[in-house]
Amino acid sequence: MAKKRKRKRRGSGPQSQGPQPNPRAAVTSPEAPARPRRSSKKEGPPPPPWGSFPLSEIVVFVAIVLLIGGFFVAAPRGAVMLGAGLVLGSLAGLELAAREHFSGYRSHTLLLAGAAGIAVIAAMLALVEAPPVVALAAGAAAFGAAAYLLAGAFRRRAGASFRVRP
User: Fold this and answer.
1) Which of 34, 59, 131, 160 is the most exposed place for a label (fewest CB within 10 A)?
2) What sign for the dihedral angle of Cα 55, 60, 63, 65?
């Protein structure tokens, strides 16, 4: 069996105690290109347009009550309660996602684009009575278009410096 050698660690000796370069010096130098950044203070999510009234929280509470109640009520009414609870909960989440996305706080591009795609699929199946394959293709096209537009809107609002590579 071969013996294992111990390796010496770099930087543990007295010769490595010399001056260390400051990693922030390159960022603060006048020659460094300016990068767009969000504000330096830690801000929470943007405030809702209705002020301090807890509308989103009330809608989520009603959705939870409907979901729980839907399990204990008889079949036709219970299914409606479950569906209403799911729709209300989804709308409350989408409202917060849209508010955060369009204020530049957080990107929710795929969530909002997915909601647009699902809305197109549901509309085509319920209103137009299109074949499911056609509705799925239209929903995928709506998802792609919405994702492209929403990503651009977030980049403009947040000043983000990232790009989607082709």
Assistant:
1) 34
2) negative
- Residues comprising the chain, all counted: 166
Q: CB under 8 Å to 71, separation ≥6 — which residues?
A: 78, 82
Helices assigned H by DSSP within the chain? 25-28, 55-72, 75-103, 109-123, 132-158
DSSP-assigned states of every residue in 2-13: PPPPPPPPTT-S
Q: What is the pLDDT of residues 73-89, one digit of tens each?
A: 998 999 999 999 999 99
CB 94 within 8 A of CB 69: no
Please return the burial class of 58, using the count of CB atoms within 10 Å of its CB with bins 0-12, 13-18 and 19+. Answer: exposed
